[in-house]
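Hi R.,

Here's the input for the MRU complex you asked about:
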Amino acid sequence: MKIQGKHYRSIWVNPNDPRQIQTFDQRKIPFQITIETWTSYKDAVIAIKEMHVRGAPLIGVSGAYGLYLATLEAPSENPLPFLEKAKNELENARPTAVNLSWAVNKVWNVIKNLRSIEDMRATALAMANQLADEDVKMCKRIGEAGLPLIEEIYARTGKPVNILTHCNAGWIATIDYGTITAPIYMAHRKGIPVHVWVSETRPRNQGSRITAWELGEEGVPHTVIADNASGLIIQEGKVDIVLVGADRVVRNGDTANKIGTLMKAVVAHEYGIPFYVALPSSTFDPSLDIGSQIPIEVRSEDEVLYTEGWINDDINRVRVAPFNSHAYNPAFDVTPAKFITGYITDKGVLTAEQLHTLVEKGIKTV
Ligand code: MRU
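And here is the predicted structure with MRU in place:
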């Protein structure tokens, strides 16, 4: 997608040096657009942990490129112990989004059986590139699957389609297009009037900082709301459809996504507003049966006790709670399948039952 008119993916191999991986430091968006360069797998581990890169599909591909960097650092003689340590650090950098362990293990399970370090390097790079390309294709298919939902609302109401979203499931959380943004961009480009309510997503504000920035760069009308305003705007009939991303969807359709998603789902259900989860197949976890089995990341209390913004020509942090108060900061919640109208996937729009049937057939193959 575009930044100031120029097309970017969210992560790429440095065209001038294939031993380097480049990405955006998302902690600074929208105030500073900076590209960071990874030369070691440790750079990838830190970037995932500290959320320079974030969003389930992007951290998956980041983990795969991290393992490629590890092959460049591993000793030629007996590289496997070094690589296995790197693999473990990468897949455990964040716990909730299943894409991370899936992508890292996909690469690991192939390279661990190769004979030479040269083959491991070439294969890890080719696989990471392939995962990135496949993610782009999946997001495009999600867009094509989700577009008719927006078209149908417009055909029925004849009014701009009001979409409520949460966190950031846009192009920079994936490799390109985004999941929930793919159908939105397609509708916008087709001339269907859309308006997005962007929930700010405390504590890290991925909505107000990243989603609003992305939509603005593409010229999509949007309005930022405080997270707490979503109940009221649903109740007032100002929302036609809720679209959210996902970090892990398990066999029965229960869905982990950014903290605050559950509250939106419950309110939307109460008021009869369709609530869709958009995800690529890489976000399904067929190894878990129900949502309560999903590990929930608990992050630093400082993310709640402080907030961050643009002051005095720089990004600065300010304290927003008393100095002697503590905070609890679970980063994800799990929305039970009963509150989810459907899943917008690269295999089409599915109900929880259809999802279950596809999982049985091996949906995770891309
Ligand atoms: O903690 P984050 O910012 O990585 O959480 C991201 C989300 O919850 C997204 O909605 C999800 O990963 C979907 S990304 C297409």
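One thing worth noting: The chain has a mean pLDDT of 96.

Cheers,
M.
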